[in-house]
Design brief:
Layout lengths: L5 H10 L11 H21 L6 H8 L4 E2 L15 E3 L2 E3 L3 E3 L14 H12 L4 E2 L7 H7 L6 E4 L5 H14 L4 E4 L9 H5 L12 H4 L2 H5 L9 H11 L8 H8 L4 E4 L4 H9 L4 E4 L14 H11 L4 E3 L6 H9 L4 E4 L1 H33 L4 H7 L2 E2 L3
Helix pairs in contact: 2-15, 4-5, 4-15, 12-13, 14-15, 14-16
Length: 388
């Protein structure tokens, strides 16, 4: 068992020597500093959401109307935050959610590699995106001994889709996370007002440009005709998926298949019936559709519908207390998104690792103070709506 909360004493003891934290431990300060580091165009893409961003904002604020009841006279001097997932034991229930512009978040534009190194240091698994500045094989190697997941935006060209999947399996990824809600992009005013869609400018395209199937579709390689390669990407991106496609997915890989974007309990039951190995409850952080319900408010029903199939969760996680509430409502693992990319912007792998460790420290200390020694105790305690 790791003492994640010990980070607090390390910070206070360093302060006795006049050493202050290099990076913030709270989200508000982290966000402010990261936006300054990222600049306007990147901030628009990373921080922006769909429409008036109501769903995005509600994802985060909705955690405030969930509360937990402390239990006293419990020995919580040691906490166990470990989980079992996809045949692996992880020291904590966090994972790094896939973000399609990680690569551009660092000064050297190698943010995918930095995120992978942060995963190796912290033991928090990285869910690598199809959209990256480094090939998925290199990213997996940089994760070291920490297992990693690969997120797939399924292309319309089935041969290309199978190539991505086989590359991920051969590279040693532990699960295939299939995104369901992004066969086209939602209405994002920040990016539209700036007329900026990074992929159409050739950003985070390395998994495509390095793929033999994709290259075979081109008359000239991407390094000789970038515009034509980008045009081909636009042509093949975004396969509309239906339940019938699960048969094909299961026929081309032995990796566990995770369906990302499930928000309705009927869809969760259907996913289980179709053989999904995990359900990923997410509304894409409010980036794809506006007018939705905060994902945390949907989680409990998804968990019930999934039965024994594990449920992953993201959308709106900003702190350790947010993560614990999601776990209390039944999530097996909790994805952190914007916080760690802000860490990348401030300090590369070191900054991302700091953010993850801060979230884990807060979660660990909350469990200690509330009398929850294990995640089973967290789930037994549950979380309660405070606005009813």
């Amino acid at each position: 068992m790791r003492n994640f909360g010990g980070m607090q004493n390390e910070i206070y003891n360093a302060g006795l020597k006049g050493v202050l934290p290099r990076y913030p431990v709270d989200f508000a300060t982290l966000e402010k500093r990261a936006h300054e580091a990222l600049g306007p165009m990147m901030t628009n893409y990373v921080a922006g959401g769909c429409g008036d961003e109501h769903t995005q904002d509600t994802n985060a604020s909705a955690f405030h109307h969930w509360g937990m009841v402390p239990r006293m006279m419990v020995d919580a001097s040691e906490r166990d935050l470990s989980i079992e997932l996809f045949g692996h034991t992880f020291d904590s229930p966090l994972f790094m959610a896939p973000i399609g512009l990680n690569g551009d978040a660092t000064q050297d534009r190698r943010g995918d590699m930095a995120a992978a190194r942060a995963s190796a240091v912290t033991g928090v698994p990285f869910c690598a995106s199809t959209l990256a500045n480094d090939p998925l094989e290199d990213v997996k190697k940089a994760c070291g001994d920490t297992p990693a997941f690969f997120q797939l935006y399924t292309p319309r060209n089935r041969e290309l889709a199978e190539s991505f999947i086989s590359r991920a399996e051969n590279a040693g990824y532990s699960a295939l996370v299939v995104t369901l809600d992004t066969w086209l992009t939602g209405w994002r005013p920040r990016d539209l007002n700036a007329s900026n869609f990074p992929q159409l400018r050739g950003r985070v395209m390395e998994n495509y440009f390095s793929d033999p199937v994709f290259r075979s579709l081109l008359e000239k390689p991407p390094e000789e005709d970038l515009a034509a390669a980008v045009a081909m990407f636009a042509q093949v991106f975004g396969q509309v998926l239906t339940w019938e496609d699960m048969t094909w997915f299961k026929s081309v890989t032995d990796m566990p298949i995770v369906l990302k974007g499930i928000c309705h309990p009927d869809d969760a039951r259907k996913a289980v019936d179709c053989g999904a190995d995990a359900i990923y409850c997410s509304n894409h952080g409010g980036r794809q559709a506006n007018g939705g319900i905060a994902t945390i408010d949907l989680l409990e029903d998804i968990v019930k519908a999934a039965g024994d199939v594990p449920v992953l969760f993201d959308s709106g996680i900003r702190s350790g207390s947010d993560a614990v509430k999601a776990l209390a409502l039944g999530a097996r693992a909790v994805g952190v998104g914007r916080p760690y990319i802000y860490g990348l912007a401030l300090g590369g792998d070191e900054g991302a690792a700091w953010v993850l460790q801060s979230i884990l420290a807060e979660a660990d200390l909350l469990m200690a103070v509330n009398g929850y020694p294990t995640l089973n105790d967290v789930r037994a305690a549950g979380a309660y709506r405070t606005d009813r």
